[in-house]
Amino acid sequence: MDFIARVVDNALSMSNMDAVDALRAFFIFAACTILSVSLPNSLRSRFIPYGARATSTATVEAEKPVSPTSPRSASPVTRALDYVATLRVPHSYFTQFYVVSVLSSIFWAVQLLWHGAAFQAIATRVRPERLHHAISINQVMLCWGLMLIQGLRRLYECLSLSKPSTSRMWFVHWLAGIAFYLTVAVAIWIEGAGTVLSHTLSLDDFSLATRFSGRTLVCIPIFILASGIQHDCHHYLYSLKRYTLPTHPMFSKLVCPHYTAECMIYLSIAVLAAPQGEIVNKTVLSALTFVVINLGITASTTREWYRQKFGEEAVRGKWNMIPIVY
After folding, report:
1. Residues 6+ apart with CB under 8 A from 320
2. 162 φ/ψ angles, rounded to the nearest 5 degrees
3. CA neighbours closer than 13 Å in the CB half-sphere of residue 274
4. Enclosing H/E stretch for 43
């Protein structure tokens, strides 16, 4: 307990923030970092594409005529960037994101139920006003359950709907994904820390009749619908021959409808976890900001990949991810 508390205290004292603010700041900082890397073409082309998109980019670059003044005449900065870009891990490491997600959900369930050391180390570093204005125990349990379902489903899809591939991704993508799933598992309950601290779990907490409200009757169907759409998209993409243009109805107006579904999943949790009198849970909303920016950039890269491989008609009239907006 003392060691965990010291680690949390040292991290928060350096930022001069409580645990909720630090968590929100992490998501926003990570989102801004990804966005800043994606803007300059010199960084975007090196670090953003992965999977088939990276393979395509590499092929295009390989087909370009070799400049007489290539690697030796390149500046030290260019050589350094090129070297860092080679630090990649197998794309199959994506599965580890959902292993981490599921294990994190189970870990925090144990911590919340028995007020474990890790939970107390974080919960006692939340400002008192936030502890008093906390989400209910029903909201905590529902959001935890939805996050576990999301992690289990995505883990199942990674294990059963993935094909052998030699593609790789930049190691920072991998680290960012691990960090996200570790922290989002905390984000879904941290604004209910005050409730959990003062609450003794009973059988009534497992009664579905006490959990349903207008908010849950809207958010849970959205979560289920978005999960079903995403699973259907993943199953369809798995059934395609390699590098075939998707023709599924969900792809008729969107380049990446499975990314749209991912955003809807986290939006439903953000609304479901909103404290009384508020529309959304700001901590989960900050996590959603990271998801939207990260997937939005990948959707843009996917659009360009489709254009290069299948021509302009393949993406004409389609939004990348968010209908009407983007």
Report:
1. 254, 255, 256, 296, 299, 300, 302, 303, 326
2. -125, 145
3. 17
4. helix 41-47
> By the 8 A CB rule, do 192 and 140 touch?
yes
CB 256 within 8 A of CB 247: no
Q: How far apart are CA 247 and CA 245, in angstroms?
A: 6
* Six token digits for residue 250: 């969900």
Q: What pTM was computed for the model?
A: 0.86
Contact (CB, 8 A) for 140 and 201? no
Query: Which range, 88-92, 104-108, 132-136, 163-167, has the best average confidence (pLDDT)?
Result: 104-108
Give me the amino acid identity at 185: A
Predicted confidence (pLDDT) per residue in 81-121, tens digit = 777 778 888 888 889 999 999 999 999 999 998 888 899 88
Q: What percent of the chain has pLDDT over 70?
A: 83
Give the single-character DSSP code of 126: S
